[in-house]
Design goal:
The protein has 20 helices and five strands. It is mostly helical and 434 residues long. The strands form two sheets. A three-stranded antiparallel beta sheet has the order 4-3-5, with no helix packed on it. Strands 1-2 form a two-stranded antiparallel sheet. Helix 18 packs antiparallel against helix 19. The longest helix has 57 residues. The radius of gyration is 44 Å and the shape is rod-shaped.
Length: 434
């Protein structure tokens, strides 16, 4: 309604102007030399308007001709941009479909149409990776890394390529550049932890690790690798405080304490660790300075005092008692370990040794053979095994050397299949001497 009223008012104004112009009195005379022209005022006014419009059209035409090259360049640019955007879309679709040839074709077309902009370079690099052309991919990533606005994108791609080549030094250097380009990136922090683990830079892994990471394992490994005694002691204490049940952490701390002359403190640490989670290496450390068999037996009793009923405590006491010639005591502890669920080869082999020691003239042959038969069907002895890939290790590492997972090694037997779990086991009481 308002628009209609506005049109009516404008029409009335135009009509009023025309009427006013048509009623203007007078004559306009123009002399150019000997030429004289005259016209009424309304006609002259209309002529001036038409002349102005003609001149305006001529000026616009001339300006259009002057601007024509720039207009054509702009039109071609917009057309190239539209074609380039279409090539980007098609390259993305080809990458998602896993079609390496099409992805490279459309990514190359996007690069030609759009130029070396970040989106076209990323597509070229990813298409080259899909086509297994690492050199071409790294070249594109390198051009991205040289762009201040897109440096992080390029560096991330170069880091991934270095990891695939297992060039850990190059990957770490690129990660440092990426940190400078985009500080605090969550992905980069996690990646730097993995790189530190791969290159066994445990101090860096500990410094970068978040609260969910195996910090005790990192600290224990860093303490073992430290060349400065005070730094090693600090790291070892940090590892032990983070996880007193981790035997390698306790051993690293106790070893540093022993090296600094604090033997009593070192043994206290070992006893604390044994009370949390007994491990044979803890016993070996605690008894390593004791030579006389009876003294070793007493030292073993002191070690297990806070956790005496654990099967590992029973097994340790059985071994120490056998070494001291206390066969009855050895058998009691060994059978208690077996009754407590320690159905492993080492237990039955120890019982065979005890049977031989109880009847040195061959009278315990039957009991020894029975124990050996049980050993043949018993579970394997525990070892450091990765909880992710199941790989067995002769010694503890902060990360599995097979799959690279950090903090995954546990002291346990091999995983048993369902068939093994359902298989009948030899039953009956522990082997008794004849």
């Amino acid at each position: 309604m308002r628009r209609l009223l506005a049109i009516l008012v404008l029409a009335l104004l135009v009509l009023a102007g025309v009427w006013w112009l048509g009623n203007l009195p007078g004559v306009v005379v123009v002399r150019l030399g000997d030429i004289t022209a005259s016209a009424r005022v309304p006609v002259a006014a209309i002529g001036l308007v038409l002349l102005f419009l003609l001149l305006y059209a001529i000026v616009r035409l001339l300006l259009g001709l002057v601007r024509l090259p720039r207009t054509l360049r702009r039109w071609r640019g917009l057309r190239r941009r539209a074609l380039g955007d279409r090539a980007v879309t098609r390259a993305l679709v080809a990458l998602a479909a896993g079609e390496a040839g099409d992805a490279r074709h459309h990514a190359g077309r996007a690069l030609r149409l759009l130029g070396p902009v970040p989106q076209s370079l990323v597509l070229v690099a990813e298409a080259a990776r899909l086509a297994a052309l690492p050199g071409e991919a790294e070249s594109a990533y390198g051009r991205l890394a040289a762009d201040p606005e897109a440096a992080f994108l390029g560096l991330r791609g170069l880091i991934r390529s270095a990891i695939e080549r297992e060039d850990w030094a190059q990957a770490n250097a690129l990660a440092a550049r990426a940190e400078a380009a985009h500080p605090g990136a969550a992905w980069l922090r996690a990646e730097r932890v993995r790189l530190a683990v791969r290159s066994q830079d445990w101090s860096a892994a500990l410094a970068l690790a978040g609260p969910e990471a195996p910090r005790a394992a990192f600290a224990a490994a860093a303490a073992t690798a430290a060349t400065d005694p005070s730094e090693g002691l600090r790291l070892a204490r940090r590892a032990f405080e983070a996880d007193p049940a981790l035997a390698p952490a306790a051993l690293a701390y106790a070893q540093r304490l022993r090296e600094s002359g604090r033997e009593g403190r070192a043994l206290k640490v070992i006893r604390r660790a044994w009370s949390e989670s007994p491990h044979p290496d803890l016993a070996e450390f605690a008894l390593s300075t004791v030579v006389e068999p009876l003294a070793r037996m007493r030292a073993a009793q002191e070690l297990v005092a806070e956790n005496p009923t654990h099967v590992e405590s029973r097994f340790l006491l059985a071994r120490a008692a056998l070494a001291a010639g206390l066969t009855g005591e050895a058998r009691r502890h060994a059978e208690a370990a077996a009754a407590g669920g320690l159905d492993q080869r080492r237990v039955w082999m120890l019982l065979a040794e005890i049977a031989d020691a109880e009847a040195p003239e061959g009278g315990g042959v039957a009991a020894s053979l029975a124990a050996l038969r049980r050993a043949a069907t018993a579970e394997p002895d525990p070892a450091w095994r990765c909880g992710v890939c199941g790989a067995e290790h002769a010694s503890w590492h902060a990360a599995c050397t097979n799959c690279g997972e950090a903090g995954s090694l546990n002291w346990r037997g091999p995983a048993r299949s369902s068939a093994e779990l359902l298989a009948p086991r030899l039953s009956g009481p522990a082997v008794q001497p004849e």
